[in-house]
Amino acid sequence: MAAESDANDDGIESDxxxxxGVKLGSTRTVLTYPDGNGGVHAERSLTCLATYEDAITxxxxxxxxxxxxxEYPDCVEYMLRSGLPEDDxxxxxxxxxxxxLLSANGVPxxxxxxxxxxxxENDEGLENLTDVIESSPIGAAGMRSYPESLCGAxxxxxxxxxxxxxxxxxxxxxxxxxxxxxxxxGDQLVPFSxxxxxxxDVDRRIVANVEEETQGRVHVDLTxxxxxxxEHGDFExxxxxxxxxxxxxxxxxxFTIEDGVQDALNWYLDAAVDAVANEFLPxxxxxxxxxxxxxxxxxxxxxxxMACIPGMTGExxxxxxxxxxxxxxxxxxxxxxxxxxxxxxxxxxxxxxx
Length: 354
Ligand SMILES: Nc1ncnc2c1ncn2[C@@H]1O[C@H](COP(=O)(O)OP(=O)(O)OP(=O)(O)O)[C@@H](O)[C@H]1O
Ligand SMILES: [Mg+2]
Prior knowledge:
Layout: E1 18-24, E2 28-34, E3 40-46, E4 49-53, E5 60-64, H1 65-71, H2 88-105, E6 111-117, H3 123-134, E7 142-147, H4 148-157, E8 167-173, E9 178-184, E10 187-194, H5 199-213, H6 222-232, E11 241-246, E12 252-257, H7 260-287, H8 289-297, E13 300-303, H9 312-324, E14 330-331, H10 339-351
Parallel strand pairs: 1-6, 6-7, 8-13, 13-14
Antiparallel strand pairs: 1-2, 2-3, 4-5, 8-9, 9-10, 11-12
Bound molecules: adenosine-5'-triphosphate and magnesium ion.
Residues 25, 118, 148, 174, 304 line the site of magnesium ion.
InterPro entries: ATPase_NBD (IPR043129), Salactin (IPR057331)
Region (Disordered): 1-25
Pfam families: Salactin
């Protein structure tokens, strides 16, 4: 690599390292870096890897993301399925996945990297994730980790990194956990996370609801359920939709889903509001009464993929206000599923001296 006169991605001759944001998620990983036109590129990739043997050389090769999922559905590995790399084998797969993703995107070694890390009570998993991060080829100019819900709140609460100077609440709605925290000037107070209110639970419920609504005639898999949720879930204007399945004995069967998707989402939202109002907030009030009052007077940042569902933010605000018997405001960034990596990128820009 020619190190001296590297033009950086903005086309300016510079010795400044490239700022990079990373969110390694159980379903999707998001990588953010300068797009070369003064903006930021966000690369979304399914967090999965498939290996195969090169037909000519016999070498083992790896394929990652959407292509791995589409071409090798039989053996693709989602190594962060539970949110963190559970064991050495999955840590090694995560390491390989991340290297493939970085090299496909040409992320330079001379970079300042900020990782958005989930809040979970799983020390071994967190240690494994730290190993993956520390052994990665990027971040020669600096590496830091911040909680995922803090990173996600940054684009929800301003155009810069204003959130880091405030006292506020953040809730992140992921596929394997629901995370809530209070932040006081970047410091995480009373981190809370639960694995019982998740995007994956919604998918499982949709599978069961579809079976019930079709009197047992239609059984969809979890991927299809997730697609139904992502395409048709809507708290503002949900419409019944139809789909067709091939039947084992030949022929096809068309069916309509009236309530199956929205019922699952209503369960999710009520459970999320209940966890925040009746589990997380009482603990916070107990330990930090004044910051609790200050934070509730500010908008709550709602992020994560599940916050992409149209109307989720407004409905969360309405139901949480009702549950707490006081008006609270809830805001989401424009792209809640990319927000953690975007926020991480903004912190990385500061670290890189921009
Ligand atoms: N555009 C969308 N519309 C609806 N739901 C979405 C959308 N994008 C993602 N989701 C859902 O959000 C969840 C994934 O959220 P996110 O990407 O924040 O999770 P993750 O970080 O990969 O998971 P975790 O935080 O549990 O490790 C999944 O259940 C997914 O189906
Ligand atoms: Mg996440």
